[in-house]
Amino acid sequence: MNKKVEILIACGSGIATSTMAADEISELCEALNIPFHIQKSSMTEIEGYLNQVDVVFTTNNYSGEILKPHKNITGLITGIKEDEIKEELKELLSNISAEK
User: Fold this and answer.
1) Strand-strand pairing, 55-58 and 36-42
2) What is the DSSP code (8-state) at residue 79?
3) Which side of the chain, N or C, has fewer Cβ within a 10 Å radius?
4) Using one digit for the tens of pLDDT, what is the confidence trace for 48-98?
5) For the chain, what is the domain count?
6) Whether residue 11 lies in the annotated active site
């Protein structure tokens, strides 16, 4: 049984691009049969969510320290290197889900 992956997706406002990215991440998790839960936030709220999530995805550059797996996923929004990012996300999410 795969572990449910708690995902935080952060963007500038916590609304626009994080919602677009959440749709993409949802599709990936569903295709891989990975149980998941997505929370969205603004970049300034990331620190407040770190104890509740397994992985953090951002749609902007984030210079703070994140002691969890973290990936900038701007390419899912812009389409730049989108396929490459999706492959990296599949591997990352699969690995987290396989953890006990």
Assistant:
1) unpaired
2) -
3) C
4) 999 999 999 999 888 888 999 999 999 999 999 999 999 999 999 999 999
5) 1
6) yes
Query: What's the rounded Cα separation, in Å, for the pair 46 and 92?
Result: 19
Given 11, 21, 38, 55, the catalytic residue:
11
Q: Tell me the residue range of the domain where 93 lies.
A: 5-99
Q: Please spell the DSSP secondary structure of 4-58, one letter per residue.
A: PEEEEEEESSSSHHHHHHHHHHHHHHHHTT--EEEEEEEGGGHHHHGGG-SEEEE
Do 38 and 26 form a contact (C-beta atoms < 8 A)?
yes
Which helix (H) or strand (E) covers residue 71, if one does? strand 70-72
Radius of gyration of the chain (CA): 12
CATH of the domain at 32: 3.40.50.2300
